[in-house]
């Protein structure tokens, strides 16, 4: 298992993970082409040429915002999510990021447990933020450095 930057050849694998994962934002192929071009930061977790997980983030001044993040359901619980998060935080350290922020569906208990273990705290709630189905978002942050 290794992590590396997203490339165009990863997009089909990323879309397959995303389609099987309704709790995350459903981005288009063009969105991921932008990631591969470096307009956003993105990494995949890869094993034997298969993409098993991905994380996309962006820099907002001195913060990291996690935009989309998932691991193939059958590969969860093996530390791939933790590896992708570590890679993201290491990237943030290169520009002195002070914190990492993200939104998550209020019902997404697995993700909330994951973030809690990685020292995130719930700092806000955005009512009816998501569609299909309509649901509140929880705003999470973790201080860095
Ligand atoms: C959140 C997510 C990316 C974490 O990825 P992951 O590769 O499972 O993460 P890790 O393996 O590093 O950590 C998962 C934890 O759950 C435990 N776990 C065990 N079996 C598991 C399983 N079958 N599924 C999920 N987690 C499991 C792991 O032991 C680990 O706990 P630990 O940190 O105490 O060791 C993944 O659950 C996911 O893709 N969820 C759906 C998409 C999503 O919600 N994305 C976030 C939206 S903001």
How would you explain this protein's 3D organization?
It is a single chain. The protein is α+β, with helices and mostly antiparallel strands. Helices cover 28% and strands 39% of the residues. The protein has four helices and seven strands. Strand 4, helix 3 and strand 5 form a beta-alpha-beta unit. The chain binds coenzyme A.
Low-confidence stretches: none
What is the typical, i.e. mean, pLDDT?
A: 97
How would you classify the quaternary structure?
Answer: single chain
- Ligand inventory: coenzyme A
Question: What is the radius of gyration computed over CA atoms, rounded to a whole number of angstroms?
Answer: 14 Å
CATH superfamily: Gcn5-related N-acetyltransferase (GNAT)
- Element-by-element helix/strand order: EHHEEEHEHEE
Reported for the largest beta sheet, the result is:
7 strands, mixed
Count of the separate structural domains: 1
User: What is the CATH topology classification name?
Assistant: Aminopeptidase
Tertiary shape: globular
Spatial strand arrangement across the major sheet = 1-2-3-4-5-7-6
- Number of DSSP strand runs: 7
> Termini distance?
27 Å
- How many helices in DSSP terms? 4
Short overview:
The chain is α+β, with helices and mostly antiparallel strands and 145 residues long.
Notable features of this structure?
4 helices, 145 residues, alpha+beta, binds coenzyme A, seven-stranded mixed β-sheet, globular, Aminopeptidase, 39% strand
Ordered list of secondary-structure elements with their pairings:
Layout: E1 2-5, H1 11-19, H2 29-36, E2 41-47, E3 50-60, E4 63-71, H3 80-94, E5 99-105, H4 109-117, E6 121-130, E7 135-143
Parallel strand pairs: 4-5
Antiparallel strand pairs: 1-2, 2-3, 3-4, 5-7, 6-7
The chain binds coenzyme A (COA).
